[in-house]
Amino acid sequence: MAASMPIKTNWTPDKKHSDRERWICIYPAYINAKKSRQEGRKLPKQYCVDNPTYVEIQDVLSVTNLRVGVENKLYPRERSKELLYRGRIRVQLKNDDGTPFNPDFPTRDSLLLHLGTKIPLLKSRQNKTAEERQPQQAQSSSGAHKKGKGKRR
After folding, report:
1. What pTM does this model have?
2. Nearest C-alpha neighbor of 54 from the set 96, 83, 22, 94
3. Residue 61 forms beta bridges with which residues?
């Protein structure tokens, strides 16, 4: 008779769009290019970013005139429990009357596409890519001067 029992949920129809429970959730895995669709990526890889953090998402959304909240939550499909992968962003997309809070972002997908295009332009991202290129060049030039293993004794 378990089928006849109602399922308990936190959502009720009398909650307004301005209530924090009605805001949409964004996890960094949604726009992570290194994740597969099965692991939680929501967009095509061409619109995604390598290993975004909740801080980068918050930085981009703070400029968009949307109400943003950060929660210390872990994405359920995330295998690693490290601090790098923690964080959930809550965003209010709609007003209480159902109209978009910001007309530029009427849907969740439009907001995710915006994040995918703006996160690579952050100064913190541009500094990381420049730092990653320099050690790779140094390693490739030093690798040419290495000697062989030598004699075994």
Report:
1. 0.73
2. 83
3. none
